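in:
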């Protein structure tokens, strides 16, 4: 797949539909429950999940205008679970015949910009039709499975999740970086409390993870379910899984050339975070631009220990245990 430098915009002839959609949006924002936001003032509870106002509009636009193709492959994740890393691994794996490792695509492009995030692309109208991308098209989303348009769910999905304690700490740092300047900084105590109540962009975390976990049990050939911790421990095995799942397993010749190992090294935290493009480049998240460097903080398992008290750990682990009980899924010491 390839992305041309500028995306052609297709004017839709259905402006009447768009106006109706805007009215529906205005009605929703007036009527559905709201809670405190992380980077904006409020999040809204939309069909069981907390989204910011732009996220709700994007979801309506996505359902109305996105045309999926059976060969599309989605990367789905809860924010701060390893999306950046997986984007880098997926684009390097699928394009391994096109890129060489001395002058690689990732040397010039932040991983976040390598393929489109539907949550961002559908924030404004008119919308790109993505027909210019050759198959298989790669897309990313933070949406839970149940908020996706039904046609998309027949596509292949790679889902990455992570111990919620590390997700929460990572998200707290990130959201304070992009928080509206007219709001006071979000304290860790407040972020912790909101997260535990499920009030977190695209949350509740546990329902998000379960939406993909259950679907992956029903259709393992359609959903590759990964954990950040597993990618950390066995990155090469994961790259092999990615290649096979995306339809192009490594050949014996590629094994001889250590291609999987090269991909792992190219996409390591140390390598990516030290590239000039990730130190100084920016990524447009729709509501504004964020430095690529904000997607690389520590890249470690267990950093939550530096921020949570024993009581906090017990509370969040208790919620995780209760919510995931009987599902066959676990995190941290219970995994
Ligand atoms: P920390 O804040 O714990 O360091 P996302 O990409 O979903 O926004 O997740 C960001 C988290 O993934 C951050 O976690 C970031 O440091 C980490 N990360 C980014 N690139 C990584 C890589 N190549 N290897 C491991 N972790 C990475």
């Amino acid at each position: 797949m390839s992305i041309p430098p500028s995306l052609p915009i297709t004017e839709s002839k259905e402006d009447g539909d768009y106006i109706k959609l805007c009215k529906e949006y205005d009605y929703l924002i007036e009527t559905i429950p709201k809670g405190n936001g992380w980077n904006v003032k409020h999040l809204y509870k939309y069909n069981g999940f907390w989204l910011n106002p732009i996220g709700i509009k994007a979801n309506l636009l996505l359902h109305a205008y996105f045309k999926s193709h059976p060969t599309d492959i989605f990367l789905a994740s809860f924010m701060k679970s390893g999306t950046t890393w997986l984007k880098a691994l997926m684009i390097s794996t699928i394009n391994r015949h096109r890129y060489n490792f001395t002058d690689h695509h990732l040397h010039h492009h932040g991983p976040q910009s390598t393929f489109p995030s539907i949550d961002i692309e559908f924030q404004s109208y008119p919308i790109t039709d993505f027909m210019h991308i050759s198959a298989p098209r790669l897309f990313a989303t933070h949406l839970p499975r149940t908020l996706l348009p039904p046609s998309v769910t027949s596509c292949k999905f790679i889902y990455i999740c992570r111990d919620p304690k590390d997700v929460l700490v990572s998200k707290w740092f990130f959201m304070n970086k992009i928080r509206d300047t007219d709001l006071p900084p979000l304290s860790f105590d407040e972020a912790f409390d909101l997260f535990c109540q499920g009030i977190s962009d695209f949350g509740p975390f546990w329902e998000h993870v379960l939406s993909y976990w259950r679907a992956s049990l029903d259709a393992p050939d359609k959903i590759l379910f990964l954990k950040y911790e597993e990618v950390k421990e066995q990155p090469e095995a994961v790259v092999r899984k990615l290649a096979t799942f995306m339809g192009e397993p490594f050949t014996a010749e590629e094994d001889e050339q250590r291609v999987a190992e090269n991909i792992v090294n190219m996409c390591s935290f140390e390598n990516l975070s030290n590239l000039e493009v990730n130190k100084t480049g920016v990524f447009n998240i729709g509501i504004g631009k964020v430095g690529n460097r904000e997607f690389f903080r520590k890249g470690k398992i267990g950093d939550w220990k530096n921020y949570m008290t024993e009581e906090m750990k017990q509370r969040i682990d208790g919620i995780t245990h209760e919510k995931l009980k009987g599902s066959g899924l676990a995190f941290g010491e219970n995994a």
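note: The two ends are 35 Å apart (CA to CA).
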